[in-house]
# Entry
Amino acid sequence: MPPAPTSAPKTAEAPSSGQFVRSSLGSGVALAARAGGALLLNKLLAVYGGPGGLTLLAHFQNLLTLFTTLPNDGTHVGAVKYLAPLQATGGRYRAWLGATVALNGAALLLGLVLLWWVPGPLVSVFQPSVGWLVLFGFGIVLLVLYALVGAMLLAAGRLRAYIALTVLLSGLGPAAVATVLLSNKETPAVATALLAYLLAQGATLLPAVWLARRHGLLPSLRGRLSKVALRELSKFLLMAVGLLLFGKAVDFAVREVLVRQFGLAETDLWQAVVKLSDNYTMVLAAVMSSVYYPRLAALATQPAAQKQWVRTVLRLLVPVLAVGLVLLYGLRNWLLPLLFEARFAPAADLLAPQLLADWFRFIAWPLIMVFTAQARVGRYVAVQAGSAAVYAVALAILVPGFGLYGALLAGVGRQGLLLLWCAWYFREYWRR
# Structure
């Protein structure tokens, strides 16, 4: 068992919509920075990356998620849950942190060995050298360590420090890409620019460690690993495996198939729509991970208060997201050329199904996160697997007849069915 804490656990406050809004607005600077950085990155690759540049960017970012999903969506999520109620000076805090570091190390080692042994399916599109692969692996390690420190700051409620790091991270990546692409306008060095993007983001680890030390969040890790902490965090790791296999890997494979079937240039139109979705999804994900989930996890021992928190957030999200997505659709003919380039204007015809699928997905999101907060591994993985199966069948049926538009329609079917299932499964959450 982990040693007993040396100080009393922190207690969770009763949630309210006002708290959600204030916390979300409080992180507005970070959200603006992330959105601005992502939009600038898209623009750089669309304009200076040549045909297929935007698709290569998305492919690279999806590749990063394949290596970081297990830590970021697994052990770090569990770390926030278990570290949030504890003081950083306690023995239990060190036990949970030590187990997180150990599991992260195992996940990273597995991923990097896989990259070295079978690089073809993962990075062949970038035509990497041995040096490129080594630097890519180094950048992945830096990025995962940075994300762990960020999770520790979130668990401790150090939102301002987390926001400052997010702003820095959002600026360094596009700056590195701009430096490489603008110095090679004649022959775009996209693979080099993307590697610079990864390493620049990884460099944020240094100020992150400094901030964590300043707030007393980096205790020395000594003694044996806690079996209890390893077992409990492994549940979150297994949920991340489900997300990796039935979410991130599926997205990676779908892009591979579309590129082979339609080519890089045409797939760029589909990718522009998906990239636009990624940008506002990133903003919502930041709010959900920094504002919604920590409170949801802290209320795990208070079922009534947790249900109230879920209802509160959903009452706010349903109308706000609907209005926002409808507004995006109305601006589509102006927005897509502005954010990317004039040649992406035809992508406006593909936007409607993507927006509808996103609305379904965002409304289901707070409910699916209940599984994570409650560490219900089997149900979480089953939902991910079922959703991926529906998506695969829909793609097989719709893409041959509708082309790229069919891929987006498949997403509507997948997310719509998921939302209907969530509404049924969590029906008790609507009862006061």
User: Anything to note?
Assistant: The chain has one domain: 17-430. The radius of gyration is 21 Å.
